Structures are given as structure tokens and as C-alpha cells.
Amino acid sequence: MDHHKNTESQLATASEFKYAGGPLEDYLPGWRDRSNDVQASHGGHGVDEILAVVSVLSSAGIPSCVVGVRALYYYGAARLTDEWDLCVPDAQLQAAQELLLSSVPASAPPATSLTPSSPTFPSPTCPSSIPSSVPSTPSIYEQARPPPPIPDSLRHSFPCLKISGVDFYVILVPSSDCLVDPSDPTHVERSGSGVPYASLIQFAKCLLVQRLWADIQDFIDGMNLDVDWGLQNLDFPALQQQSAEFAELRNKRLEENTGTRGHLGTKIDMEQIWRKQASPEAKGKRIEPMKQGRYITRWRRVRDRDSDPRTRQGRPV
Q1: Over the stretch 186-196, which tens digit does the pLDDT of each residue have?
Q2: Cα gap 25→42, rounded to integer Å
Q3: What is the DSSP string of 232-293?
Q4: Domain check: are 299 and 154 in the same one?
């Protein structure tokens, strides 16, 4: 049997399946065709690209800061994604989308030369959500396929854009959906590269009110935080009230967006959650067996006990 010929036949069949019944995106939620995209800067991390986005928005008076998985990576968790969640004020969400979609190459310098410096949630898959002001000249940014829906989240409904021809995606997140105000200096800190991130304290609150338990664990382990840090910095009585209000708002928006009311509980004890997840026992249990004795948390080596991942040399943040 000609195994080489048989392999070619199998590949052809797979290719035909991809296009015979329509785009593969119709079969796989979240699938994106990246075959014609080049890798983003810094080995695919996209630091230069997010700086460019932040600069475009800043030039129009729109503050922003990174939240989500990229912020977890900044704070030391071994979590990676090519999607950058960028928080902007609710009132400027639509303006930010329109501004990026209307940015043409002639009006924007290369990313490497840049110096850091109750909304309506459009459906990225609906043509009517694309601003009418988009110029005919090809833009640097284009509308992108949104991420797949996940329970009790509206992330899939927020504007999702990419840089044309580059494997880089940015999701514009309204500030009310993450309890972060990028216009408040106390809510933002900048990395050594100049990328604005949700500050350490505010990002902790952001994760807690969203009930992102796995993310909270990774955040605690990345920064090696303990129970006392939370008691000293998170103001749990105030956070408890904010958490209840956030849950009510998120549940209401989920019902408006999906027809099914969300299930975020309004009476979860934030302080008890923190005490449990940041305890020495919990942090120890999260360390894999092969790392025992060499790591003090899931993401922190014993030799790096006193180091801060935010300032560690060579990290693309």
C-alpha cells in the first residue's frame, strides 16, 4: 500500500470537509482561521500590539487597562492566551470600537515606535453592530470572531477585534463588568514595557466579585499572597456590598442578552473565600506532586520566594 498516497487522500478529505458545508467556524465555536496571520510581537505575546491599541485609545482620551488572563500572566500565573481583555469606561466602549476600526495605517505609527502612555453591548457577530463610520480604506484593526460563550459571562458579547494579518486579538470590556475603572489612577499600574494593567488590589477584587475561583487561585499563587494581605488590602465589608450589586447587575444583563437569568449568588462571603484560597494548606495542595519541595506555590519556585514576577527580567509584559 502506498502510505504516502493514502495520507494525501486523507488530507484532501479533511480539507474538503472544511469547506464543503461552509466555514469551519460554523462547526467549532471559537475557531479562528489563523493560516494567513503572522505571529504577534515578543514571540506571540503581542506586547507591542497592545501598546499600539492603548496608544490609539489614549490619543482620543479613552483610558484603558488590561484585565483577564493577560493580567493573570502579569501577576505571575503560567496562563497564556492571544486574546487581550482591555477594560474601558462604559460610556466610551462604542467610541473605542469605532476609533480602532477607523484607524488606518497612514494615521498610525508602527507599534514598536509607540511610547506607553449601563452600556449597550454590541454583538460582534451581527453586521449591524459594526460602526457605520468605518472607512473604505483598509483599517489596521478589523472585526473578529468572538470567543465562545461560557456560563454566567458576557465576554462573548463584547467587541472583539484583531490586527489585520496578525495573530492578535483584543476584547473591549466595559469597566462595570470587571469592577475596574481605568480612569482611576489607583485602579491601574504599568508594567516595565508601559502596558497598563489593573492594579494588584483592584484586580483581586475584580476576580472575587466575578466568582472566578480558579483565576483567584492562580492570582494568589502567582504573587504568593496570603490571608493577611487580603485582610489588610481588600476591605471585605465594602467588597461584600459591591459583590452583591455586581451579581445583581451581571444576572440582569445575562437575562437581557441570553434570555436566561444568570446564577451569580449575591450572598457569597468574600472574606471566607479569600481565607480559604489563600491559606497555607490550600496553596500547598495546589502544588503538583513533581513540584513538591521545589515550589512554595503552584507558580512560585523556592529560589524565587522573594522575587516579583512583574519586574522579573525577560517576561513579555
Answers
A1: 999 999 999 99
A2: 28
A3: HHS-HHHHHHHHHHHHHHHHHHHHHHHSS-----S---HHHHHHHHTSHHHHHHTS-GGGBT
A4: no
